[in-house]
Structures are given as structure tokens and as C-alpha cells.
Amino acid sequence: MNIHKFHKELDLAGRIQQGLLSFQNQSYELAGLTIAKQSLAANSIGGDFYLFGDPKQLPMQADESLPGVVHYGAESDTAISIVVGDVTGHGIGSALVMALCIALFSDIIKHTHNPSEILHLANQKLCALLPTDALYFVTAYVVTFFPRSQTIVYSQAGHPPGWLLSKTGGLEPLSCPNSFLGLYADEPFEEACHELSPGDRIMMYTDGLSEAPKTNGDRLSEAGLCDLFQQYIHQSLDDTLNAIFDAVKQKTTVIPDYQTLVLIESSPPHPQS
User: Fold this and answer.
1) What does the pLDDT look like over 28-38, one tens digit per residue?
2) Where are the domains of the chain?
3) Which of 78, 136, 139, 155 could be 115's S-S partner, Cβ–Cβ 3.0 to 4.6 Å?
């Protein structure tokens, strides 16, 4: 393959990869959430990805926590799962694994809403499909939102934690660390839960953003990213997202790594009819 054809195909791969991520970059409403997201492409193709499941109606399930009492959840209960992830390295190999991850997670979240199970199933598939000598592994953060109860359940696999910004300004990590995906097929995954209030915000990102250089040359860092997230609490999600990316906007076209950011705000639950 000559060098011109190689660069042409590399450019095509990059545009296809952006096509998987760039739709609906502005904020939109989904099942009691406002979501804003963006993935800024690096100069080489890489492995960042995110996806959002369709609101999934939960089946009615018995709850026998009280002796002699069987309670069934309302049929209107729904769940929506969100995944943010990253594949190690850059180049065509990472981009192919990224596309594989989007396909795997897209299928898995159609059948289960439990973050620990989502990661467990994705890990088993990746361990079976990835070549053992390729040294590719995947990080991911999964959160499932239950609009009716205003509850989230979350888990992470080698990925930076999500951050919860309360409407009163308090900031705390949503951390439940587990191993990377694609390394050990029998790895267990834990999950945690948190109750939200209307107006609470959640930030998820990839390390390409927290490690990006600011306009003054210093690295943004996780602490700097959290400061910006907190600083714009009274602005819209779009304005917050734009302000964070403006902080790392480069004067040149050299972007060393993909920079991905997903912001979520909880809305008041709709009254039951």
C-alpha cells in the first residue's frame, strides 16, 4: 500500500469514527434527563466512545421484603443506561476495538440495565474476541438512571469516576472501581447507587480531556475539570460543556488524544397519570 492510499484510508477511518460519535452534539431531553455531549477528535484515530440506551420499560417484579406482602413495581418504571469508554492506544487497531465496543454495549444494554452485569457481559465478550497478544484493553463507566425514583446505579472499569454536582453546589465522586475490560474473563464487577434531586448534574469524561493542556500550557487535570464543572453550575449544560472545551482549546491543530465529555442533569419526574 502506498503512503497516499494509507493516509486516505486513515482519514476515512477517522471520519467514520467521528460519525459514530458526533450526532446530536447539542443538549437534548431523554427520559427525565437533559444530556449534553461532545467528543473532540484527535489528530490520529483513537478509542473514545459513548452511547445512550433507549428508555427501557422494566418488567413487573415481586418484592417480598416484608413478610406476607408482595409488592409489584409500577409498569411505568423505566431505566436508561449510559456508557462512556476508552480503548487503550491510538490508530486503526484502537478504532476497530472502539467500534466493537459500541456494537457490544449497544446490544447488552438492550437486555439488562444493571451496570455491573453490563460490564461483566462486555468483559466476557471482549476477552473472547480480542487477540491475547494485541494488548488492547478497555475502560468504561456505566450509569443507569431510573426516572421514577430519581435513582442512579453506576459502576466503572478502570475508568475515571463520574462526578455528582448537587444543585446546592456540593461536588462528590461517583466511584465504584473495578478492573479494566478485556483482561480477565472471570473478573467480578461491583456497583453502587445514589439518589438524585431535580437539578443535580453528573459529569463523565475520558482521560484525554483531564490530561489535555490548557491554553497556558499547564495540564487541565481532574481537579481543574471539576472546578470548571462546579464554576458553571448556574449555566446551561451546553454553556458548561463549551466552557470546558474552551479551556483546552489549542492554538494549533495538534490534539494529542480524544477529548470526550458527557454532562447530565436530572429533571423533576413527570406526575403519574
Assistant:
1) 677 788 999 98
2) 3-266
3) 155
What would the pLDDT profile of 132-179 be if each residue is shown by its tens digit? 777 788 999 999 999 888 999 999 999 999 999 999 999 999 999 999
Judge contact between 259 and 245, C-beta under 8 A: yes
14-28 pLDDT per residue, tens:
555 565 565 444 566
- What CATH architecture is 3-266? 4-Layer Sandwich (3.60)
Which residue type does 179 have? S
* Model confidence at 75: pLDDT above 90: no
Question: Three-state SS string across the chain, please?
Answer: CCHHHHHHHHHHHHHHHHHHHCCCCCCEEECCEEEEEEEECCCCCCCCEEEECCCEECCCCEECCCCCCCEECCCCCEEEEEEEEEECCCCHHHHHHHHHHHHHHHHHCCCCCCHHHHHHHHHHHHHHHCCCCCCCCEEEEEEEEECCCCEEEEEEECCCCEEEECCCCCEEEECCCCCCECCCCCCCCCCEEEECCCCCEEEEECHHHHCCECCCCCECHHHHHHHHHHHCCCCCHHHHHHHHHHHCCCCCCCCCCCEEEEEEEECCCCCCC
Q: Is 12 exposed, middle or buried (0-12, 13-18, 19+ CB in 10 A)?
A: exposed
Mean pLDDT value across residues 95-122: 92
Cα separation, 35 vs 44, whole angstroms: 27
What's CA 250's distance to the chain center, in Å?
24
* Residue 161, all three cell numbers: 469516576
Region label for 72, one of left (φ > 0), alpha (ψ between -120 and 50) or beta (otherwise): beta
